[in-house]
Amino acid sequence: MREDAGLSQAELAQRAGLSRKWVNEFERGNPNARIGAVLDVLRALGYGLEERALDAHRT
Questions:
Q1: Dihedral angle at the C-alpha atoms of 33, 37, 24, 5, nearest 10 degrees?
Q2: Which end of the chain has fewer CB atoms at under 10 Å, N or C?
Q3: Rounded Cα gap, residues 58 and 12, in angstroms
Q4: How many CB atoms lie within 10 A of CB 34?
Q5: Which residues contact 1 (CB under 8 A, 6 or more apart)?
Q6: How far apart, in whole angstroms, are the C-alpha atoms of residue 59 and residue 10?
Q7: What stretch of H or E contains 9?
Q8: Whole-prediction pTM value?
């Protein structure tokens, strides 16, 4: 996604308010990423998440 947007790790980090090191570790699959930071990255790339209730009757 980052490369498709034409951004370097440093540029994405700056837009998301994170460190380049954080972006690098996230791209390498760091499982300890805070959800808030992930949302910041998505917003910086022009994406967002939508909350919706799960169907309580679904099995």
A1: 130
A2: C
A3: 38
A4: 10
A5: 45, 47
A6: 43
A7: helix 9-16
A8: 0.72
